[in-house]
């Protein structure tokens, strides 16, 4: 009577199976958080309203010609005889001091303001997220060194630091303004990412993956990173509005985006001296700026409430 050979899984196979199980549990946990957060967002009227405002703003930035048939860069666009004329049926926002149609300039001004916000937010998220992850994962002297470097940049407030650097560096276009604000803005994302990485790298599923032989990069991108994204998404959403308002402040002070480029900050600066006699020249670009910043900040609040379990 022959004996049947019972095959047992090898140690490597068992370790791989446990690692896969740990990865599946971590992925399921993150998927559940994102799914629950998205389901909660869709039930909030504030999320729908702010999303519609932001979609309109993006459409203004991408295709301003859909909203106005005029172009501020065409010959004869500005007519001095129309200087500071109030709103009328054919010109809803009236004219500015140079006799330019304010509605058209407001529409085209959205592009530079939004591009600065998006480019700066993307750059700060990538730089701060990468450096923060490295500091949190490595720890020790590398964490201390990166933290001290971060404190140097964080010591300069955004507006004051922008004024200082741009007065030396020079500026006047979207890319120089975005670059300088990105240099000053990444420490905020760094601190959040570093704290989240440190809080997550000692969790059981990370310890199990490390014990089963998973490499550092695999642990970082497959286990830790997905569980640190929620707070980064929240601060990124809010920062869009912050950087748009910072660009407007720098342009208002005459050191950000400059003529012939158009932005809401430039328009507000041009109209400030004639506010008492022609308030429309300041109110419309300032109103567009206020609605945009408020929409991004409120969207960030809604996203935070949806993705943070403690806020539910």
TrEMBL record:
UniProt-annotated location(s): Cell membrane
Keyword Oxidoreductase: no
Transmembrane helix is among the record's keywords: yes
Annotated keywords: Cell membrane, Membrane, Transmembrane, Transmembrane helix, Transport
Occurrences of domain ABC transmembrane type-1 (ranges): 110-300
SUPFAM superfamilies to which the protein is assigned, alphabetical: MetI-like
Membrane topology category: Multi-pass membrane protein
Transmembrane segments: 45-67, 114-137, 149-169, 175-193, 224-244, 282-303
Family per record: Belongs to the binding-protein-dependent transport system permease family.
Protein name per UniProt: ABC transporter permease
Organism: Streptomyces hokutonensis
